[in-house]
Amino acid sequence: MTRLYKSVLLISCLAVLAAPALCASHETWVEVRSPHFIVVSNAGEKQARQTAIHFEQIRMLFRQMIAFAQKAPSPTITIFAVKNEGSLREILPEYWVKGHSHPAGIFFSRLNQFYAAIELDAQGDNPYETLYHEYYHSLTLPYFPGLPLWLAEGFADFFGNSEIDDKEAFAGQPSPGLIKELRENRLIPLDVLFSVDHSSPYYNEQNKTSEFYAESWALIHYLMMGDNGAHRQLLFTYLDALGHGATEPQAAAKSFGDLGNMQKALERYVGSDQFYRLRVAAPPKISDANLEARTLSDAEVDAELGGFAATRGRTQDAKPLLEEAVRLDPKLALAR
Fold it and tell me: Is the pTM of this model over 0.85?
């Protein structure tokens, strides 16, 4: 498994409007810095501060619950915490093309630049699920980019469904929304689920994506928590086989055996009410005094959004934003 983990475990407002991206002069953006995050938000300073505090807290929770995270580097992540779906659509236009699924959050990393984008008013059973889901990806994707997609997304939803109160924290919370999705639809055959990649309809088409995420979560939940954790060794065997060079089908056959039997077991689990969760002591909240807040200039907002677009390979969006940032403030190092 060690080898797997090592190898895989930027013109004017008119131009900006033409290339759908936010025009910085249209609204106020703030920046809040915490020890490990930079939150850039158009939802106001209060919301930006709350986002930074939540990210710091979930960072501590994951680092105490996930063995790898305890030793992994903790790079600074820039988070675009936007007020609604319209704002997220403006900074992520590629996700709103016809037929594509519309995420409530995403994580990107490239050339040691780390970004997350989240919709603050996203609906759901857990208002912080997207935030936690994307932070889990920030821990794993830069270091384990080759994990099967069902595994990466299933674990992200497992840890995304975390809850933190004053005394305790929980991971692997049962998700009523995901369970409802599963019970209202036929499960995807496991051999199909295991073969889903970034080009697959189940990962990109709006009417299929929810099924893929729900079943990936359910399978991870079953393997991690089903029957009081009795099936975790199957998951460890699967990871070990991948780490020793097995193909995904070979690893699945070695660890899960007859996929038909596994499918029936998963169907029974989804239909049951026996969903357990992991419990640990709640990590402390960082003090508001540890946060630095300021209003960003139009040039700085253009530079931030341009850098984010460039990281995603969106040169057509990045170039006009960065050119406008340099025009507004020729001395702005971030833009250059």
Answer: no
